């Protein structure tokens, strides 16, 4: 269903909108066509017609014309989630998209919180042969719809590959899967494999994909996707925006090394996590980042890394350097405040991570940890322990420095270097944001604030305290200029 179905804020009261709505109502009285109604009225009645958004039988409450309109809207944008979490709804949706014309209507597909849900045999038993024929048409030779001997029910998750192959024209998809992912790996691989010559091969027109995996409603998020399971989605022919929340990068270097630079992905957002008993190498990280042909936006979150951090930094930047001319937005977050060997009791002293961010001339948006910007000791990138404005991309528009812990260190001179970057900039910079957890002793950025006021740059220092408390200190020269202009226009009393 449309996202604004319950929102009244989208309904404008301007004269032109009111006149247009009146004309649509007049047209509806003449034609009785639901499509001629004003959008806000159409969506309100459509919400009543479809109720949960999945139970098609509820459409019988309205006329045939409304059933047809609701049917078209439902299949164009289908969502299975909290409001309609009945496993039989997946089967009902599959009944509908089994028809080729209906299946080709689907453009947006969202399957949320799909876990070990069971469908009673009385709901699907009579359709078992039909489902097997759909799997055969889609080239899913290993698909088998078996009944649990104990519960006498069917696993609803096995319907997902069939749904994906029947909705072959879908352009945006979101799959939020609970429990173990292994049951789907072979089936999904077969559904999108280059060897699959079926006309119902899945995801051939997909532009945006979001994969999320977690343990369930009462378990924390955990990495369940492995590159061997989802590596094929990196090379879907039309995919431009990929989000994978929870991916184990183990052995990625070997599995993906032959297809570097061939993926059409332009926006990549991944959360890389590792099981404690496995190890990820720098080649795994580098190979994942080297898949896109022309990467523009990257958001990467490392939740747990069991590797020497010099390999981590080396692999990260080796993977990104090929995108130095095209990368426009870079966000790097870690689950730990310090860039150390997180699963080791020994903290390295002779090496500190350092990133050649100044070598990315196309970067306009940057959000990284403070430790990513400087070197405390000599390393492979710098010959000295100091850092300069060369650590910043030259054409930045927005800069966010996270986990700022060493801003008051005298040897770093953090405030003056940041102020120098603002003063010597090319005029592109619009905003700087610094986040820290020093709630009781906040850092002073007097030089940076002064430089930002002179150059018209918005500066914000965000301080996170205990219990989720938060304090923000904002210096916005744009608002100050507006207030000054407004006060100058006020009449002067005699």
UniProtKB/TrEMBL annotation:
<feature type="domain" description="F-box">
    <location>
        <begin position="35"/>
        <end position="77"/>
    </location>
</feature>
<feature type="region of interest" description="Disordered">
    <location>
        <begin position="1"/>
        <end position="31"/>
    </location>
</feature>
<dbReference type="Pfam" id="PF12937">
    <property type="entry name" value="F-box-like"/>
</dbReference>
<feature type="compositionally biased region" description="Polar residues">
    <location>
        <begin position="469"/>
        <end position="494"/>
    </location>
</feature>
<feature type="region of interest" description="Disordered">
    <location>
        <begin position="466"/>
        <end position="494"/>
    </location>
</feature>
<dbReference type="InterPro" id="IPR036047">
    <property type="entry name" value="F-box-like_dom_sf"/>
</dbReference>
<protein>
    <recommendedName>
        <fullName>F-box domain-containing protein</fullName>
    </recommendedName>
</protein>
<dbReference type="InterPro" id="IPR001810">
    <property type="entry name" value="F-box_dom"/>
</dbReference>
């Amino acid at each position: 269903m449309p996202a604004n179905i319950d929102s009244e804020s989208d309904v404008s009261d301007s004269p032109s909108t009111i006149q247009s709505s009146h004309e649509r109502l007049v047209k509806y009285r003449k034609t009785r066509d639901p499509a001629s109604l004003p959008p806000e009225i159409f969506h309100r009645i459509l919400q009543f017609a479809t109720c949960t958004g999945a139970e098609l039988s509820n459409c019988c409450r309205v006329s045939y014309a409304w059933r047809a309109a609701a049917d078209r809207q439902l299949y164009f944008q289908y969502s299975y989630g909290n409001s309609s979490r009945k496993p039989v709804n997946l089967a009902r949706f599959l009944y509908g998209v089994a028809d080729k014309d209906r299946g080709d209507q689907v453009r947006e597909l969202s399957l949320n919180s799909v876990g070990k849900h069971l469908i009673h045999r009385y709901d699907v038993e009579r359709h078992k042969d039909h489902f097997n024929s759909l799997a055969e048409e889609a080239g899913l030779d290993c698909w088998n719809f078996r009944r649990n001997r104990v519960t006498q029910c069917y696993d609803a998750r096995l319907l997902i590959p069939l749904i994906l192959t029947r909705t072959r024209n879908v352009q945006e998809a979101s799959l939020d899967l609970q429990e173990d992912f292994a049951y789907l790996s072979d089936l999904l691989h077969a559904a999108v494999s280059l060897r699959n010559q079926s006309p119902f091969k899945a995801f051939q027109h997909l532009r945006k994909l979001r994969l999320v995996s977690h343990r369930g409603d009462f378990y924390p998020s955990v990495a369940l996707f492995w590159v061997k399971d989802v590596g094929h989605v990196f090379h879907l022919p039309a995919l431009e925006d990929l989000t994978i929340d929870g991916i184990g990068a183990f052995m990625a270097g070997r599995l993906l090394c032959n297809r570097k630079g061939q993926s059409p992905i332009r926006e990549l957002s991944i959360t890389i996590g590792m099981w404690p008993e496995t190890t990820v190498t720098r080649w795994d990280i580098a190979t994942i980042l080297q898949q896109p042909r022309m990467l523009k936006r990257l958001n990467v979150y490392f939740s747990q890394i069991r590797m020497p951090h010099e390999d981590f930094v080396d692999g990260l930047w080796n993977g990104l350097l090929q995108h130095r001319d095209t990368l426009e937005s870079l966000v790097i977050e870690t689950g730990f405040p310090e860039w150390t060997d997180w699963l080791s009791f020994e903290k390295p002293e002779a090496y500190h991570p350092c990133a050649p961010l100044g070598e990315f001339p196309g970067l306009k948006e940057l959000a990284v940890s403070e430790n990513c910007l400087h070197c405390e000791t000599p390393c492979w990138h710098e010959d000295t322990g100091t850092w300069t404005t060369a650590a910043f991309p030259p054409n930045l528009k927005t800069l966010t420095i996270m986990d700022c812990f060493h801003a008051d260190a005298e040897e770093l001179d953090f405030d003056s270097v940041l102020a120098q970057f603002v003063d010597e900039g090319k005029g592109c910079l619009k905003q700087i944001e610094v986040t820290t957890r020093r709630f009781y002793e906040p850092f002073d950025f007097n030089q940076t604030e002064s430089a930002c006021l002179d150059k018209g740059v918005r500066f914000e220092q965000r301080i996170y305290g205990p219990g989720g408390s938060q304090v923000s200190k904002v210096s916005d020269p744009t608002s100050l200029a507006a207030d000054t202009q407004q006060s100058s226009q006020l009449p002067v009393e005699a």
